[in-house]
Amino acid sequence: MSAPLTLGPAREVPLSAVNPVAQLAAIAVLTVVLLVSGDLVTPSVVLAAELALLPAAGLTTPRAILRRTWPLLLSAAGVAWVNVAFGTLDGAAAWLSGATWGLRVIALALPGVLLVASTDPVRLADALTLHWRVSTRFAYGALAALRLVPLLATEWQTIRLARRARGVDAGASPVARVRLFAGTAFALLVGAIRRGSRLATAMDARGFDSGVPRSNARGSVLHRRDAWFVAGAVAACVLAVTLSVQTGHWSPILG
Amino acid sequence: MRDVDLRVAPGERVLLTGRSGAGKSTLLRALGGLLEPESGDVEGELTVDGAPPDRARQRVGTVFQDPDSQLVMTRAGDDVAFGLENVGTPPALIWPAVDAALDAVGFDLGRDRATAALSGGQKQRLVLAGALAPRPGLLLLDEPTAQLDPDGAALVRGAVSRAVADRSATLVVVDHDLEAWLPLVDRVVELLPGGGLTEHPAGWTPPPLRFPSRRPDPPAGEELLRAEAVTYTHRGSHRPALPATDAVLPAGRTLAVTGPNGTGKSTLALLLAGLRTPTAGEIRVGPALRAGLRRPDRPPARWRAAELVERIGTVFQQPEHQFLTGRVRDELSLGPLRAGADRTAAGRRADELLERLGLAPLAEANPFTLSGGQQRRLSVATALATRPPVLVLDEPTFGQDRDTWAELVALLAEQQADGRALCLVTHDTAVVDALADDVLRLGDPVRAS
Predict the structure, then answer these.
(1) Which residues share a beta bridge with B254?
(2) Contact, B433 vs B211, CB < 8 A?
(3) What is the pLDDT of residues A130-146, one digit of tens each?
(4) What's this model's pTM, rounded to 2 decimal places?
């Protein structure tokens, strides 16, 4: 099992040339259309457009695609199954509703996968703070915290082993097992908070709280291609809705 | 910390030392303007460049102990640039300053190197570059090498000496490793636990470490544990963390496991401690250690925790990982209670250890509030509480002051004299000299103990 999220510097792929805020804007457009639509045609067309972008995000082999998308595929299958099994519809209608929901979930979440696969977290923070005036304290604070996440996994192992070394294990009792889990989780949380506060002190020692407007060494430039990218997303949505209306499937959830 | 009078001239280099808990880190934080005003009572006056420290902040660069809680960015160059961005340096001036700082510390892996992929020594060098990039007038180092292996520590000290060579920055460094820093500093200031300080002029040498008197090369008692060609490979990894290794732990002798970082020393300790199962090879248990087990045929990694704690005591590198209760006294009685002792007996054992280790005044304190040296003594004491015949300790003397060091080593020598088998994983050559009967060096081509 490997993490679908990379926390180190991301590899440069063709899609990295699109500014993260342009990608986020495109995601916003798709999200609105997908949430409003209630049919099978709209998410299918949007999804086709998204799949066409997979190679640009460096996801060319089935293995690479699965590695990034397995949690998403799993949850889409879950949503579809719940709809088929517990929905009010029967027979073919139930299956259709399940497929619609499953496709919607995938079409909604896949752009996020593309964003993560093509975007360095630092570039995202730069773009958000420079173009959308997101608070630098929030953006770079979150970035620093993200660096600590992989450390938590090793910390969890160590705490678990240290407890056994102290004579604490759960044995066969399920109650003791839950208590041990809670105790380990609490110790991990306490450790994370202590480490986080040390990190905050170190960041402030480097002038993070200076109050001076922050400059940015890397910068974040919006090109014409970024506008084209958002326009492309709008075009894909227009196409999807037009097709859906013309084939008579359009059944918006709102209105 | 109290009654401290200290004047440091521009360009001077001062080593700040003293017992753990004497207030060295507090003084350093105060100089860096990093103390919260509401966190304590302040008496007297402290100025940096004639101004209160919080106003001189931009002229001060600080490096702390743990590199992982100081790096912010994912790439080396971006991390060095972080401090310059924070004070609004124009982007055109940032990269030349970053390159100069990386050059000053001798970091030659390039700006784009991922920070997560660096060794501890390289990370700490990068942290130092980040502190130097804004060209501080005052550089504060708080035990910058305490968590590094000897190679990493030498790397960082080399970087510091390059960085302060032109005397454009004043240096105040807190560290316990006096010998290593002496060639670099002009004078040594020792903070005293009760308040006040002692100054040692240039040319001063610290008193030698106190070694315990012990019988050289004691006879090997009964064999308690033996590792036979044990190997450990992490799941999903192709290279073993520990290639096939043999080790023997007889009663009454001490085995030191040494070698560079990443050669599997701590992994071997976890295998011997019954905390991990080797992927190949076997941990064999002597009859004395096996006696009383519910399933004597099983290897230590499959014993119940209550059986393990009575037979093998383990001390982890970070004491905080091991603490489970909110009181020092409870921490000490926990092991005996888990092993089946009644409350009175466990309490008696706890009091005995509190007295023996000089922790009695702290019996009601929370283990997490103790100083580093006190935590270390407590973590060793918790492992001793159940009187296990085998003790496995991972870097027991890491970052300890000289007095704590001597106390720990004396305590361990006593355990060995009582007939226990000790296994020490350590980088500390003084500990090896003071305690080890056998040395197993990992990372060398031939493996035999």
Answers:
(1) B422
(2) yes
(3) 999 999 999 999 999 88
(4) 0.85
Residue of A147, A161, A219 with shortest CB distance to B71: A147
Question: How far apart, in whole angstroms, are the C-alpha atoms of residue A65 and residue A54?
Answer: 8
Interchain contact B334–A (C-beta under 8 A): yes
| Residues A204, B66: C-beta atoms closer than 8 Å | no
Q: Which two three-digit tokens encode residue B449?
A: 């103990």
pLDDT in tens, B169-196: 999 999 988 889 999 999 999 998 888 8
Pairwise CB contact (< 8 Å): A164 & B275 = yes
- Overall CATH class of domain B13-200: alpha beta
* Stretch(es) of chain B classified as CATH 3.40.50.300: 13-200, 223-441
What's the alpha-carbon Rg for chain A, to the nearest Å? 23
Task: State the CB neighbour count (10 A cutoff) for residue B111.
Answer: 16
Tokens representing B140 are 């504060």
CB pairs under 8 A between A and B: 168
Question: Is residue B399 scored above 80 in pLDDT?
Answer: no
Is residue A249 within 8 A of residue A39, CB to CB? The reply is: yes
State the Cα–Cα distance between residues B72 and A203, nearest whole angstrom: 8
Domain B223-441 grouped into CATH 3.40.50.300:
yes
Confidence of residue B449 (pLDDT cuts 50, 70, 90): very low
Burial of B405 (0-12, 13-18, 19+ CB in 10 A): buried
B-chain residues within 8 Å CB-CB of A158?
A: 316, 318, 321
If you count them, how many residues does chain A have?
255
What's the CA gap between B307 and A191, in Å, rounded? 28
> Can you give the pLDDT at residue B404?
86
Per-residue H/E/C for B206-247? CCCCCCCCCCCCCCCCCEEEEEEEEEECCCCCCCCCEEEEEE
Residues in chain B: 449
Which residues in chain A touch residue B308, judged by CB atoms under 8 angstroms apart?
A: 164-165, 167
Closest chain A residue to B334 measured between Cα atoms? Answer: A166
Quote the ipTM score. Answer: 0.85
Residue-wise pLDDT for B224-275, tens only, equals 999 999 999 988 788 899 999 999 999 999 999 998 877 899 999 999 999 9
Residue A201: predicted pLDDT: 92
The three-state secondary structure class of A129 is helix
**Using the beta-carbon criterion (under 8 Å), do A207 and B57 form an inter-chain contact?**
yes
Q: Which of B78, B98, B314 comes nearest A122 by C-beta?
A: B78
The C-alpha atoms of residue A98 and residue A96 are separated, in whole angstroms, by 5
CA atoms within 13 A on the CB side of A127: 20
**HSE-up (13 A, CA, CB side) for residue A38:** 5
